[in-house]
Amino acid sequence: MPREHPLHRPRHGRRQLTALVCALLFFAAPVLTWTFGARAEPLENRPLAEFPSITDGWGMFTGLNAWATENLPFRRDAVQSVDALSRGVFGEPARLEGSSHTAPIGTGQVDAKPPLDENVFPNVIEGKNGWLYLGHDVSYRCVPRMRPEQVIAGLQRWRSVVEASGRRFQLVIAPDKSTVYPENMPDAYAGEDCATRERERFWQRVPGATGAIDMRSRLRQIAERNKRPIYHDIDTHWTHEGGVTMAYTLAERLAPGSTANWKVAPSRQYEHSADIPDLLGQDRKVPIQAYSLAPDGGADNTQFKPSDFHTPLHLESPPKPGMVDRPTRMIADSFTQFASPYLAASFTDLTIAHPETVAENPQAMGAMLAEGEIVTLELSERFVAGGRYAMLDPAVADQVGAVLAQHPVR
């Protein structure tokens, strides 16, 4: 439009050109650096964001930001630098952008007007006594993707389809560290009210409605007996003592009295890279005390096979007294990484797959679960409470159940 026109606006050509060049460099950086051999490292316990598909429509463009951000090869150094600058200048940790790539769905927004957004929550919550907590313990509760009724219905559908095929079903919910050790959370933090309220509601309703094993009191008992925490102070997971407790609890539920002669003793020690400091660009270690487990009271029967379960992990052992000797198939997340050596020691035939693989390929996972007479789910509290598992959709359970129904256990 001519300059004298009232709607004329200058084009700011130089600024537009500069912004365009910066945008092109941002999105091209992952490709260029990959070409020269640099590789990005995940900072969280999940794969890096994938390049969005053209079939996503407009979602392809909205997904480019997450892909470019996460696939920057020097992201860890950048995160560490930003955090150091924030602490040095402002005396507080950097408020790093949230890691979710998908907008929350469903209702259940609480404790805010306007509705809460995940980006208002930090990825890391710095607690008392040097403890670090995963921010998702809070954000997933305050910004859920499913209502509690939907979560319960999804878990109930899983029990229904498994038991309809003649199989035994067990559900274990691994409690969040902030649930077992709330005393080390800071005195005040973003989302405190909604997270506390929803945590109480979750444990009041979900175990009773779904038959889930509630391990909270047992974990605290073991910690008090051993006089040390059963969760790592700077990692979100429980220790190997938590893994032994999970194996013990499952074995007793499936074969009461089978653990009477179990012999558990300290074995090797090693260091493990803690997952929460990774989100701050830090590489910090936690000491790991592993254990031996002899189900019959004799020789150690553990197997240490590192796996994230995205490729199913099969564990097999000759039967001994004190073992669960029925074929068992399990869907489990990273908490079971600390339990798998002891599950290997106490189950004769066990295969473990990750929850993400179930929704990705229900038919294949249905075939895997059909190999067992027992189906067990271990799911993390934060992901269940926030409705973050795609497998909680009853339609996924129905697809798996259709496969199980074709191979019933008599």
What does this structure look like?
It is found in: Periplasm. Keywords: Alginate biosynthesis, Periplasm, Signal, Transferase. Pathway: Glycan biosynthesis; alginate biosynthesis. Pfam families: ALGX. Residues 124-271 form the AlgX/AlgJ SGNH hydrolase-like domain. It is a single chain. A 6-stranded mixed beta sheet has the order 4-3-10-8-9-7, sandwiched between helices. A two-stranded antiparallel sheet has the order 1-2. Strands 5-6 form a two-stranded antiparallel ribbon. The protein is globular and about 70 Å long. It has 410 residues and is α/β, with parallel strands linked by helices. The chain is 41% helix and 14% strand. Helix 6 (148-164) runs parallel beside helix 8 and helix 6 runs parallel beside helix 16. It has helices spanning 13-35, 59-62, 64-70, 75-90, 136-142, 148-164, 177-180, 192-210, 216-226, 240-254, 275-278, 340-346, 355-360, 362-370, 381-385, 394-406, and strands at residues 124-126, 132-134, 168-174, 213-214, 263-273, 285-294, 313-316, 328-332, 349-353, 374-380. The chain contains 16 helices and 10 strands. The protein has 2 domains: 63-94, no CATH class; 139-406, no CATH class. The longest helix has 23 residues, at 13-35.
Helices and strands, with pairings:
Layout: H1 13-35, H2 59-62, H3 64-70, H4 75-90, E1 124-126, E2 132-134, H5 136-142, H6 148-164, E3 168-174, H7 177-180, H8 192-210, E4 213-214, H9 216-226, H10 240-254, E5 263-273, H11 275-278, E6 285-294, E7 313-316, E8 328-332, H12 340-346, E9 349-353, H13 355-360, H14 362-370, E10 374-380, H15 381-385, H16 394-406
Helix pairs in contact: 1-3, 5-8, 6-8, 6-16, 10-12, 14-16
Protein name: AlgX/AlgJ SGNH hydrolase-like domain-containing protein
Pfam family, one: ALGX
Keywords: Alginate biosynthesis, Periplasm, Signal, Transferase
